[in-house]
Amino acid sequence: MRRALILLLLIIVLGCATHMEEVKKRFQNEYQCSEGIVYDMGASSYKVQGCGHTVTYICSGGDTYGGFGQTDIACIKESGPDPSKADGFSGIRVEKKRNEKGEAILYGKFSVQIGRYRAQVSLRAEPLNNSKNIDFDILIRTYRKTLFADCQLKIVSNGKRVEYNSAEHYKARWDEEIKIKMPLSSLVLFGSGQRVIGRLCDEEFQFTKENIDVVKEFLVYLEEERALNADQNEGKPATTEEWKAQDIVYRP
Q1: Residue 100: pLDDT over 50
Q2: Is the dihedral of CA 218, 219, 222, 223 positive or negative?
C-alpha cells in the first residue's frame, strides 16, 4: 500500500514537472522570450511571466497508465483580455478628441502582422481641420532586440508606391517604433487600395481589409471636419485636389 502511494505521488510530481517544461517551451517559442518563470496554479493550470507578458496555460495528458508509457501533453492558452485593448488602446478604431487648445484631434488604430511580430499602427491628425500630414506610427514589440533600425518601410497600394515625407526610428526597452509623416494624398492612396502590401527589411506583409477600412473611416472623419469648418477657410470648397478623398466610401 505504501509503495503504491509513493509511486502515485512520484507520477503526479513527474507529470507536473513535464507540464511545466512544456509550458515554458511553448512560452519561449510564442514570445521569443527565454526569461519566463512558470508558476504552478493547481488543477493543471500554469502561469508564466516574462518579457512583459503574463500568460496562463491549461495542460492535459502526460499521465501514465499501469507503468506503460505516457499520453501526449497538450497545453492551451487560457483566453485573456482583448488584444485590441492592450497598450492603451480602448478598442475604438477611430475617435476624435481635443487637445489643450480645444482643437480637434483624430486618432485611428489597427494591428498588423509583420513576420512573427505583431505591430500596432496608429494614425493621428492634429489639428484635425488643417492637417496636411498625418502621423503614421508603427509600434513593434521586439523585446530586447533591435531589428528594424536600418530598414526603410515601403508600402504599395494597388501597385503604386505610398510616399511619405520623413521617417524616424526609436527603440525603447521592449519596443521599436517607426514614426512617419505621411501626406494626406498618400493616405488616400492607401485607403483606396484593394491590395496594400508592405516591406520592412526582409519582412513582407499585407494589410488586411479591416486595416484598410480603418484608414477609410479615418479619411471620412477628416472630410467631415473639413466640411464643418468650410466657412473658416475663406469659402474654399470642402474637397480640394489636396483633400481628394471623395472616392473613399466607408462601409463598416
Answers
A1: yes
A2: negative
